[in-house]
Amino acid sequence: MQINGADTAFVLISAAFVLLMTPGLAIFYAGMVRSKNALGTIMQSFILISLISIEWVYIGYSMAFGPDVGGLIGNLSWIGLRGVGLEPSANYATTIPHIVFMIFQCMFAVITPALITGAFAERMRFGPFLVFSLIWTVLVYNPVCHWVWGAGGWLNKMGVLDFAGGLVVHLSCGTAALAAALVLGPRKGYGKENIIPHSLPMTLMGTGLLWFGWFGFNGGSALAANGIAGSAFVATHLGGMAGMAMWITIEWVHRGKPTTLGAASGAIAGLATITPAAGFVNPNYAIIIGLLGGLVCYGAVAAKSKFGYDDSLDVVGIHGVGGTLGTLCVGIFASTLINVCGADGVLRGSFSLLKSQILGVAVVGLYSFGMSFILLKLIDRFVGLRVTEDTEIQGLDLGLHSETAYSE
After folding, report:
1. Given 42, 140, 213, 272, which is the most exposed site by the fewest CB atoms within 10 A?
2. What pLDDT shows up at residue 9?
3. How far, rounded to the nearest angstrom, does the alpha carbon of residue 160 sit from its chain's CA centroid?
């Protein structure tokens, strides 16, 4: 194993791109809430950069990527990054320092619980939110990460493919978001009052930052400056633009007018859907996957009101559904002509990969939802999850943080 300077620089830059996604997400979400909750929403994402990074250093990385224990979890031999140094790992990214691989993966661990916050925007107490995010990362994200990406992980050994996080990030956060929306219940006035975004320009700026960061998210997951990284980079852009085009088209036909919120939502839907497939499919299939993402996620978001749950910022319909769809698309469109380390899907004459992908979706979806629901119920039972009615009316900014985003 020999360190490659170009690969190392590429993954370090990609890690910085992925970190940028969390502040980008904060802005994206903040624009979609009411002005009285803008800072509270931003704070939920920003604080996780600190909280989850600390968790990752001391136990998270070792649980997710440490030496395997029965295919279920990594042991704690790398606790506090003991043994994670400047030489490459024998099992992960053999051309870059082990510590570079660690910090790249840290950024994924940070943004995943941050994505969940969109489901309970405008109504969760800050202290219980921190408790939930920390325990959820330990009990859900770390094990799922090991199952899918860890050396010896049982889903990995079953042939499940997830290039950059369709299962590990998007499906796990989407099902947790559904649990959160069900446990907390709807916002005060939901379905009766017109609850609208306070700053769509802010949301569009956040969309741009997320899209930019996604090139590191997906392209960097090649873990080397090579052809797979280039292919994933192209697939990422094409998936995002196709998702936007499809969402806007359907919205225009369905509602009569295209909207900037629809453009932002469609782009994120396409990006989420292409994520698990980015390093396994050619550009034309990436466009098809993005179009499917825009179509199916639009339908999922539109159907939300029929099911009666208040997923404030559409985490379930975009990330949960997009991650599921993209993971299944891997089983259809993947080709070893693109990535010899992958597998062939249905269109290449093999059905075994699709079966593995269905297994991955079922296992991760059920585990994340079940654990999230139990965890949220326990926290609610013992300390309470939801802000008081007065605080909800006043807004999280003043009620929880004694700040306001805008002076009057």
Report:
1. 42
2. 98
3. 18
